[in-house]
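Margin note: ligand = thiamine diphosphate.
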Amino acid sequence: MPLLLANSSPVRDWESFAVADGPPRPVYGFRGASGIDGTLSQAFGIAAATGAAVLLSGDLALLHDSNGWLWAHQRHGRLTVVLLDNGGGGIFEQLPIRCDPDAELDFERLFAMGQPLDQSRLAAAHGVPSRQLASAADLPDALAWSLEQPLALLRLHTDRRADADLRQGLRRMAASTPAPG
Ligand SMILES: Cc1ncc(C[n+]2csc(CCOP(=O)(O)OP(=O)(O)O)c2C)c(N)n1
Ligand SMILES: [Mg+2]
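Resulting structure:
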């Protein structure tokens, strides 16, 4: 099934860490512009063009185009939205600005900008059902459930600081692993 990767961490993580021998599928992105705007509307467009699609999006990207849910009322094709909800812009956790713990920087307000809004309720206002996932291990069952719905939102909470540490650890590991051959 076609997959749309939102800008910010989803597309970067996929490029960096997706297994190379995973099942083949069309993957869409819109890196040229690299904006987080219009993400949900674009996913509806891909679902309409291909019949069915999955969007992998961060919380701010999804919220930025929350009016995209209006497409639910004139939908063509089915869409599953997988929301990685880390309470703001997790991408910024990887900037060196986080390095100095004594720095006078209101990181949460100026960079992370987490929004106190329940995205499941927002989707529900448009008649879109959702499931809250306790961990990534719930994803296969939740995806199977979502495929039975015309539209669905799957919401997975993650800890953006822990995620940034994990990425850094994986990069260090890759850099210290000798190339094959
Ligand atoms: C239209 C637009 N506004 C602002 C930005 C700057 N920006 C880049 S990534 C990002 C945060 C995205 O947060 P989220 O979608 O939650 O993904 P995460 O970083 O947590 O993976 C922002 C605000 C942008 N790229 N495009
Ligand atoms: Mg986020």
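The longest helix spans residues 160-176.
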